[in-house]
């Protein structure tokens, strides 16, 4: 049986992956910066501060790298790679984001550099680039539309996806031999932020005066030009509307 490590196993995507592994009776270790409950399947490590990584990755066959740091994602990934032995028989499955090579956004540049580090490392890998999770878009609207008057960036086109479908794809990819390739996955429909916000307000029964702010320059062109979208659509996942209808956190 494979020995599995999940960095970011405590995060949104990590939790969805853990559910799939549990359902399939597959054991795993979660890497986290803390283990307050003292669970036996948690390895305490900090990817940015480079602590505990070697011990956590030792003897693992599959490493799902889902942990992220908005400012130091590349450093975190580099530290992980350095702790891994290139000659070890390991499959690194990394979650990335659709459009990171075309959207000039600081965090995306970090993710892109992380991808490059992985490709250069000599460690067998699969990269999966996903579009935005429904939960992420929901969090954005919760913040931007918290008050009666909300400011919303104009004309961003996104293709939100059900997080469980991304987790399922990661799991399926981990079962295959690593081909050192990059795949993409996106939701079944693309919308503008305005369309998604309208549906969000409807479902959450919130009335907001929304002021749409234009985004200028290269970032605006990328967002408006659909660079966050992919043709690799997940057909049977929940659409934004269906996800909002089913969202227990409403
Ligand atoms: N959100 C989206 O829409 C979206 C779309 C496509 C791809 N992605 C990618 O999917 C991945 C997971 O996203 P998510 O939304 O599930 O993230 P999340 O809920 O914010 O979770 C972040 C995870 O990173 C871990 N982490 C943070 N700093 C760490 C450090 N220094 N050392 C070790 N672990 C650390 C956290 O673990 P502890 O707090 O337990 O230490 C946590 O489990 C990210 O790589 C992101 O780029 C996200």
Automatic annotation (TrEMBL):
Q: Which PANTHER family match?
A: NADH DEHYDROGENASE [UBIQUINONE] 1 ALPHA SUBCOMPLEX SUBUNIT 9, MITOCHONDRIAL (PTHR12126:SF11), NADH-UBIQUINONE OXIDOREDUCTASE 39 KDA SUBUNIT-RELATED (PTHR12126)
> What's the protein name?
Uncharacterized conserved protein YbjT, contains NAD(P)-binding and DUF2867 domains
Q: What is the lineage of its organism?
A: Bacteria, Pseudomonadati, Bacteroidota, Flavobacteriia, Flavobacteriales
Q: Which InterPro entries match?
A: ComplexI_NDUFA9_subunit (IPR051207), NAD(P)-bd_dom (IPR016040), NAD(P)-bd_dom_sf (IPR036291)
**In what residue span(s) does the NAD(P)-binding domain sit?**
8-134
Q: Which domain of life is it from?
A: Bacteria
Which Pfam families would you find in this protein's record? Answer: NAD_binding_10
Q: Which GO terms describe its molecular function?
A: protein-containing complex binding
- Species the sequence originates in: Chryseobacterium arachidis
């Amino acid at each position: 049986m494979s020995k599995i490590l999940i960095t970011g196993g405590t995060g949104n995507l990590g939790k969805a992956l853990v559910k799939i592994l549990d359902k399939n009776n597959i054991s795993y270790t979660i890497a986290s910066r803390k283990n307050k409950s003292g669970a036996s399947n948690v390895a305490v490590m900090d990817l940015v501060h480079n602590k505990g990584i070697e011990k956590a990755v030792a003897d693992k066959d599959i490493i799902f790298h889902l942990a992220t740091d908005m400012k130091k994602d590349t450093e975190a990934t580099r530290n992980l790679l350095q702790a891994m032995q290139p000659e070890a028989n390991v499959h690194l499955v990394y979650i990335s984001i659709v459009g990171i090579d075309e959207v000039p956004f600081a965090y995306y540049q970090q993710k892109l550099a992380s991808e490059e580090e992985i490709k250069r490392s000599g460690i067998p890998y699969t990269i999966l680039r996903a579009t935005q999770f429904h939960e992420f878009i929901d969090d954005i609207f919760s913040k931007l539309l918290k008050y009666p008057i909300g400011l919303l960036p104009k004309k961003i086109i996104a293709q939100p996806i059900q997080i469980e479908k991304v987790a399922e794809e990661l799991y399926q990819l981990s079962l295959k031999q690593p081909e050192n390739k990059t795949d993409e996955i996106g939701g079944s429909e693309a919308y503008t932020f305005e369309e998604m916000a309208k549906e969000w307000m409807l479902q959450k029964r919130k009335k907001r005066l929304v002021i749409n702010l234009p985004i200028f320059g290269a970032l605006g062109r990328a967002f408006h030009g659909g660079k966050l979208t992919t043709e690799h659509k997940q057909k049977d996942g929940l659409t934004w509307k269906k996800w909002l209808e089913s969202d227990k956190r409403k």
